[in-house]
């Protein structure tokens, strides 16, 4: 490892599986001290067991209280905070508007946007005082669905476009003290991404699609099927001093979707 994050103090929100968990491991391997906020109690137990001493807050990132508790836990453990990473998310399993019952739209929209968008607002708001002090860095998780149709349904695509909006608005507002960027992964192996309770999709996992690895590789120009471990390097870069001149920007570890014929 290269020690790119030596001395950095980070909070990862949505850290129990998939991309967030890979970010926790990569940040620690690069020398960072990491705290986490995670909703699933079983994942919290696993994190605590596998990483002794890790500050773990069990809570719902869509709430102000959970984010304030997690930031306070990180600051108490490390004496400050340099990096905030947002990795929570839920998927809509490609539902078009035509497939959504009219009576389901209110609850499904509220649930999707609470998890995929509002959680980031609460996390950033809670972390602002500590990040201003440290002149820190925020990294949110977008998706290829923040740029293109077809890799998610109308609610997921709209929510991920909104994450781009957060990055642009917050990078503008928080300069020069805090950098704000995002990672926009393509389809990813070995995650636990699920759907909204309000659409009955909370026990369905995107990763359970048959032949997902071959399907992911076949759909992108580089013919690669990427995992959270691959994406984690983009977060490491954006959290490090190597990216000190970059804000309001997005890294695209997606196998080259933008140059697809
Ligand atoms: N899996 C993919 O193919 C893919 C592709 C592009 C972007 N993404 C995005 O990457 C991010 C991470 O997704 P993933 O695929 O690693 O899924 P994941 O479900 O494995 O990881 C998300 C983590 O966040 C937690 N979480 C969810 N809602 C929460 C809440 N309200 N409060 C606290 N914790 C909560 C989950 O329990 C889980 O541990 C999401 O924003 C997702 O949209 C995923």
Automatic annotation (TrEMBL):
Pfam families: adh_short_C2
Gene Ontology MF term list: oxidoreductase activity, acting on NAD(P)H, oxygen as acceptor
Keywords, alphabetical: Oxidoreductase
Segments forming a coiled coil: none
PANTHER family assigned to the protein according to its UniProt record, in alphabetical order: BENZIL REDUCTASE, CHAIN DEHYDROGENASE, PUTATIVE (AFU_ORTHOLOGUE AFUA_4G08710)-RELATED
Family in the record: Belongs to the short-chain dehydrogenases/reductases (SDR) family.
Family matches, as NCBIfam families: PRK06200.1
Protein name (record): 3-(Cis-5,6-dihydroxycyclohexa-1, 3-dien-1-yl)propanoate dehydrogenase
Organism field: Pseudonocardia asaccharolytica DSM 44247 = NBRC 16224
Classification lineage: Bacteria, Bacillati, Actinomycetota, Actinomycetes, Pseudonocardiales
